Amino acid sequence: VYDVTDLLSKDKNTIGVALGNGRYFAMRDRQETLPSLLAQLEIEYADGSQTVIVSDTSWKVTSKGPIIANNEFDGEEYDARLELSGWNKNGFDDSKWLTADVMTTPAGKLTVQSNPNLRIQEEIKPVSITERPDGKYIIDMGQNMVGRLAVSLKGKKDQPVTMKFAELLKEDGSLYLANLRSANVTDIYTPARDGQFSWEPIFVYHGFRFVEISGLDYKPELSAFTGKVIYDKMKTTGKFETSNPLVNQIYKNAYWGIRGNYRGMPTDCPQRDERHGWLGDRVTGAYGEAFIFNNALLYNKWLQDIEDSQSPEGSISDVSPRYWTIYNDDVTWPAAYFYVANLLYRQFGDKSAIIRHYPSMKRWMQHIQQTAMQDYIIVKDTYGDWCMPPESQELIHSQDPARKTDGAILSTTMYYSLLNMMSEFARLSGQENDITAYQELAAKMKEAYNAKYFHPETAQYGNNTVTANILSLRLGLVPKGYEEKVFANIVKKTEGDFGGHVSTGVLGIQHLMRGLTEYGRVDMAWKIATNDTYPSWGYMAKKGATTIWELWNGDTADPAMNSANHVMLLGDLIIWYYEDLAGIKCAPESVAYKKLIMAPVFPEGLNAVSASYESVYGEIKSAWKKENGTFSWDITIPGNTSAVVRIPKEFRIKQSNQSGVRRVNDTASYTEIEIGSGSYHFNN
Questions:
Q1: Which domains are present in the chain?
Q2: Does the record bear Cell membrane in its keywords (predicted)?
Q3: pLDDT tens per residue, range 153-192
């Protein structure tokens, strides 16, 4: 919907539409539907009367315009010799145009789009341009970005200028294209005359850092190129910076990767011939993203995409929207449906998605119980602990059974967590009668799961992978009294077998950083966060990455799956940054940061953190410093909220009579201060 009041004149008006292929044509999914237009102009006059102009057979159409090809994967081709001067202005002669065809109405119900469109959100300039031996030029944007390249160049009539895009370079300085698979990623502009021209495509986007330019007879200046960064219009709500440059770079890489994959849905990647809404990528990641961006509208919309993908039997497609129909009836990917709905409630205080989708969620839970549960164990799994570090850096997936977590462990632990979530959803949705059934099934599953997979003598689950143990621990399946022993296995495995490095894939990494911290090993979490050797986020950054890779070994693995811009391996890292390093954490009994528990951790070697998050109540700020025996902490709490602040006793803070302090309580390990809205300064 657009307000076009300022564009209308009292006399004659013309509507002109340039119609591209979008995601609904040439999507390489065994079906082709022609792009179609449904347009309606509603004019309301001062006297209250209305005129409605609708797209119909009175409209004229031509395929002979200058945009001769456009495709999300392959790029856009523009022939300036075919430009139609004034085609969208009053008085244009359209006598040679054809009458528009009436297309078949799409199936389904037409609904309003709930989230804003893609927008140009930032512009960046390249940092270098290099001439190749073949006369082509390589432009380096300095950042792996997603969007378009606008150019202002000198061309020759009939001589195409070609721009090819890539995320990486080969050792010889040429474009690395192998990881793009069949995507052609090429824009072409053909000048109509000699001389200067300015152009940018309008129907495509690319994921790229480097651009190869051919068809020029001179070396252009850097000022001739502008990168237009494009993603769904939304506000940046979080900031995070520390005294550690590597952590700051990893956060920056996450920021660029997250927004580059917001395209009307959260996509897996922005560059190759895929770019789909894989559910497994966002189960926990969406929560971390919500600190950085106000993504509530996007994820509300995506939940509807997920429900729309559901089969009559109750299956959910692992890719939603359902450009690829993948009904595996696994648990770990569709879990995103539930976790994202819970995120919208916990982070933004909005339970409407839970209520709206509760019947669909219940249907899926019942379907999985009927088709994938045997003796209270979920036996189906498709993806395993996807992309865990393999034993050889040339592999995509590990072949070592000792590294691989039993799929039934993954599915059962996740389904158990969903039963507990559905108990809360039932309460919020006014479906309290369902709660007992969820709780009884959860209890039976926990008993059966521990009987089958837990080894009491060693406190290990399955084959003792970190993922098996930490999912069992974090999701509440460990028998009472064994928690510390299970955690000891996580520590021993991480330190002994993996040298203090990540050994998990997409599922284990969702709980690793918070799990290590909750059970007292902040030092290990910090080591993992700051490692720059393989496998680690720091290794990616050290190798020059400016976004997050799809694989821990994305620089050495088979090109079939080594996207340089994925966010699934972030797991709970961003959550850990904000909640544990900065101390911006919603109290467990609260939602949307009405009440906070601010109890940051202070790893050895980290001297300062400064973070802010714009919650629905207002901006929360936390900035602490510690060095050479001094400690200070500045906090801002928005109106109509409160916080419990916990400061370790070792910092020996001065008691002050600051306005807004409601209560001070000393424990053996920390000073606890309850504060209301306002700004505070604590120091020793």
A1: 118-232 (2.60.120.260), 238-581 (1.50.10.10), 595-683 (2.60.420.10)
A2: no
A3: 999 999 999 999 999 999 999 999 999 999 999 999 999 9
